Amino acid sequence: MINIEKVLDLLEKNNYYAVKLFVNEMYPADIALLIDELDTKNSVVVFRLLQKDLAADAFAYFDNDKQIALIEAINDSELYDVFSHMFLDDTVDIIEEMPASVVRRILNNTSPDKRKKINEILRYPESSVGSIMTVEYVSFKKDITVAEAIAKLRKEGTSKETLYTCYVTENRKLLGYIDVNVLLTSADDTKIEDIMETNVVSIPTTEDKEEATRQINKYDLIALPVVDHEDRLVGIVTVDDAIDVLQSEVTEDISRMAAMEPIEDSYFKTPVFVHAKKRILWLIFLMFSATVTGVILQHFEDAISVLPVLVGSIPMLMGTGGNSGSQSATIITRGIALGEVSFKDIFKVIFKEFRVSIIVSFALSLINIIRILAMYKIGILGDIGGHSVFIIAAVISLALLLVIIIAKFIGCTLPLLADKVGLDPALMASPIISTIVDACAVVIYFNIATAWLGI
Amino acid sequence: MINIEKVLDLLEKNNYYAVKLFVNEMYPADIALLIDELDTKNSVVVFRLLQKDLAADAFAYFDNDKQIALIEAINDSELYDVFSHMFLDDTVDIIEEMPASVVRRILNNTSPDKRKKINEILRYPESSVGSIMTVEYVSFKKDITVAEAIAKLRKEGTSKETLYTCYVTENRKLLGYIDVNVLLTSADDTKIEDIMETNVVSIPTTEDKEEATRQINKYDLIALPVVDHEDRLVGIVTVDDAIDVLQSEVTEDISRMAAMEPIEDSYFKTPVFVHAKKRILWLIFLMFSATVTGVILQHFEDAISVLPVLVGSIPMLMGTGGNSGSQSATIITRGIALGEVSFKDIFKVIFKEFRVSIIVSFALSLINIIRILAMYKIGILGDIGGHSVFIIAAVISLALLLVIIIAKFIGCTLPLLADKVGLDPALMASPIISTIVDACAVVIYFNIATAWLGI
After folding, report:
1. Which residues of A touch B276 (CB under 8 A)?
2. A309-327 pLDDT, tens per residue?
3. Half-sphere exposure of A193 (CA within 13 A, CB side)
4. What is the pTM for the complete model shown?
5. Which residue of A has its CA nearest to B412?
6. ipTM for the complex?
7. Does residue B137 sit in helix, strand or coil?
8. Of A123, A237, B235, B403, which has fewest CB within 10 angstroms of its CB?
9. Is B330's CB within 8 Å of A284's CB?
10. Alpha-carbon distance A73 to B446, whole Å?
């Protein structure tokens, strides 16, 4: 737990020594939560009390705004200290979010070698593996012994973000890898090439970063090596970065499924106006789409005037259709995200959803007939205009049956088609599907009604 | 890539030597994909050609059905080999999914020590941290030196699932931890207690397993130590298991948000009947809920008969209301899952969503007035029964404004209330919210219409 009151109290009493002892015992992530709550003046005070490596670690967890405020408040030598203690992938993450003037100041205060590496990573597109990789990893030559490798690790290890997995290279070409536990538990005089794993999963810099996450998850990796187009090792993606990618992809998918553009910051950190902006365009688009359903509905104005009872079933038909379609769209979208389903399975998916829809639609239609007869019996069905209640029930239930089958067909095909043409399948989830299904529901329903009831 | 044709071809030619060479070069996860595609006879053949430790690793990735089939096909000594090479947390995962007769056979073929540990873990509830932890970890006494610790690691390391993070204990009480890179890069004669990190994040066995995932993500951990109620170290949760928990929680949330119970297996592995079962109950419940909206609609039968134009706006009002509510419900549900929002923030959330809804609703209502006037101009609005088009536009737009504000209020409060009373907030997402908002939309709309238009 972060005790903000305690820190504020100590700061007020100018007891900086106690603050220093207190904050230097905290985790970087918790220090960030604390400093994000303080005003700029106190933030800088607390930040300056941190040990250099802890300051660098914590800095990577701050809000963007706080990072900018701190960079503006500290001098160049302090800035150099922070960025020289920071891992390269964190540095790149920060630079990507900064205004140009701040970026220039950061780059001017990093070593030429690090600046070169930063620029290399910055050139990769934001969605690519290259943009999330770190270039700090451990590599061995294949002909050294375990004892030599351990000695090398112990000498160089501190500057590497992860040494849990070490890589074996020759002229920068990736030959294999060796887990640190295998290394440690092998005999001193064993050659690296005799214990290295040569069947190594790697990923090109240009691949989608989501794919790196999938590989790390599939093979339970701590780090995934990244290679260029000539199969040379250029970096690694670590599991903690993979989890961050996973979480933001999920937030993106869930937002799109609910007809919103994803927000980048947390809920409370995002201003009201940004929230409104992320939601309003989809609502306007869907409002106009729903108008189409309304216009179709007006075409059946005569049927409605003659038999208003028909209107009573519209919310049920549109709701059930929309929900059926959303179910299929959601399960397929999630399947695509998990790599279980892809466009080449489209006919298998359609056939499977068809069988599911047959079971679901017959069951629901049967229950619906019973519901209508029961409502008629207790007198809350409304005026059925002299028609037989059985005909009314048959009309509504047949419409329901067809709407569910069509909804599940549309729901399962649209995300696959979207994925095929390079769109986010999550865009095709609930709201769009519901809108399309609504229109279908009205057309099917009133066509059956007018034909069978002779209106 | 997995070359199934090649393996099948080699098997047909009885070239087991080539199969053996081929499969022993593959990754466990890929071997599982291969064997899952083979029939039982060939599965057993290929499985028997695997090296013991690889066989154990691959086994943990198989489908449940395949695991049962293989256990039934192999003899007791082979079974012993598989489970003695398998990590404890994987063993427990498998046992939890097996029928009782198979469990008995597995337990009869494991060492008494391992059987005791399995039984300990099996007693933890499925949603608890205890159920996903592994009890294989490295621990040191605080007064040994770095050289002694490294020697201990090198001697004992192979039997531990992860030695990336080592723990320091005294009478099983957790004193601190030390990352293997810190250990390796410290001088030989340094005492462990001088370099261990004493500010250690740990989690109780009884805590929700989602919380372990959150901690691992927040602090970028490779493993999280698990303690009992007396703060004694009993196990660790590794990052790969945390990712699996994360993925299945996300699938669960997304499924519930689309009115389905989550499926446990992949999309194609799940039979049609199970898919139908997971979806049908929600559809029936929502169908009956929508019937309520229908009954309310029938109350306004007279208004509908007199002015059928009113019906044309129902899909737009219900759709926009449902979408607005879903947006709020989804963003709050995701916020709860990420630990950003909780019940204590309910008034902050309501106030924030209110301000968002003001912006969104005024913008949409304005656009809606323009839409109605434009549709009237080009003659597709339908019969407005002698009323002024401005009054019609005002009625519909005022209804829209109120529906959006109410939808966002309901959408943001229900998930928080659900979470407060211990229900899954995802249950309160889109479909239920849409159904409630639909009913509200009809009531608001027809009350305004009948009052202003004097029907």
Report:
1. 356, 359-360, 363
2. 777 888 888 888 988 998 8
3. 8
4. 0.76
5. A267
6. 0.75
7. coil
8. A123
9. no
10. 59
